[in-house]
TrEMBL record:
Protein name, per record: DNA polymerase LigD, polymerase domain protein
Domain DNA ligase D polymerase as annotated: residue spans: 36-294
InterPro entries the record matches: LigD_pol_dom, MtLigD_Pol-like, NHEJ_LigD
Record organism: Desulfomonile tiedjei (strain ATCC 49306 / DSM 6799 / DCB-1)
The organism's place on the tree of life at top rank: Bacteria
């Protein structure tokens, strides 16, 4: 990454032979901590080695915060018309219009270009751009309804992991960056969304039957109080989900970070999940020490079994 000019507010850099003009680098995007746009870009540059395999060549929804996390934000599915000609796009059929041309990230230059748009969060498809109708994974979003919280999500995740193991499947956990957890089941084999969504719904309902006092698989908000909602509905070709290692637009610059099952077991045993919400510095230190705990989500090949519930 070569700098050709810089000051406190802007910088011209060359990455992978592509010239980028970075702007408003000293603008505070996280007022509670003073975390600036320049620091957002710096984080994405530092984490890129482990992030890129997970975001690369997947349709990407931008979640942009031009005035910081306390200001208005917007989702941007259609890649901005002013994008450089080296930014790749993927055309996907849409429910609300004929198609959407999503941005895709193919390397560090495009990742930094996206970060410079104040797209704090990276929301990716479960499919790759070369086959948008074939999901490479299944995702479950464990979302607690007060007074349930992250500790209850930990308890549910461990039971969920065991259910997956009984089916011959390995699962991987990451934090939402806030009060919940996300569970991923890598596939990387031939399948389609009809099958993965049906499987996800059935497994979520099975878990709810097993733990009715703590779990619901029903989307109705009035049924979520004090329970963990296992959201299976993200398994859809029209939807995107926050990518691992993405920043979250919370009060502080927290990250959707991979968490080892052994860590979740310890949290459950100690009945303390406070250490699961990680910021950028903590995630960078975790990666330096443990590597990419989500690496197998990209490479592990698994076939869905038949599920009778």
């Amino acid at each position: 990454m070569k700098h050709t000019r810089s000051d406190n507010t802007k910088s011209s850099i060359t990455i992978e032979g592509k010239k980028l003009h970075l702007t408003n680098l000293d603008k505070v995007l996280y007022p509670a901590t003073g975390f600036t746009k320049g620091q957002v870009i710096e984080y994405y540059a530092k984490i890129s080695e482990v992030l890129l395999p997970h975001v690369k060549n997947r349709p990407l929804t931008l979640k942009r915060y031009p005035n910081g996390v306390d200001g208005e934000y917007f989702y941007e599915k259609m890649c901005p018309s002013h994008h450089p000609d080296w930014i790749q796009t993927t055309r996907v059929a849409s429910q609300h219009r004929k198609f959407v041309d999503y941005c895709t990230i193919d390397g560090l230059a495009s990742l930094i270009w996206v970060a410079n748009l104040a797209s704090l969060e990276l929301h990716t498809s479960l499919s790759h751009s070369d086959n948008v109708l074939r999901p490479s994974m299944i995702v479950f979003d464990l979302d607690p309804g007060e007074p349930a919280g992250l500790l209850q999500c930990v308890e549910v995740s461990l039971i969920f992991r065991d259910m997956l193991r009984d089916l011959g499947l390995a699962g991987f956990a990451k934090t939402s960056g806030g009060k919940g957890l996300h569970l991923y089941v890598p596939l990387n084999t031939e399948t389609d969304y009809d099958r993965t969504k049906t499987f996800a719904q059935a497994l979520a309902r099975s878990l709810a039957k097993r733990m009715p006092k703590l779990v619901t698989a029903n989307m109705r908000k009035d049924l979520r109080k004090g329970k963990v909602f296992v959201d299976w509905s993200q398994n859809d070709d029209h939807k995107t989900t926050v990518c691992v290692y993405s920043l979250r637009a919370r009060e502080k610059p927290t990250v959707s970070a991979p968490i080892a099952w052994s860590t979740l077991e310890t949290c459950h045993k100690k009945k303390n999940a406070s250490g699961l919400v990680l910021d950028t510095e903590q995630v960078l230190k975790q990666v330096e020490k443990e590597g990419d705990l989500f690496a197998e989500v990209v490479s592990l090949r698994q076939k869905l079994p038949e599920l009778a519930v």
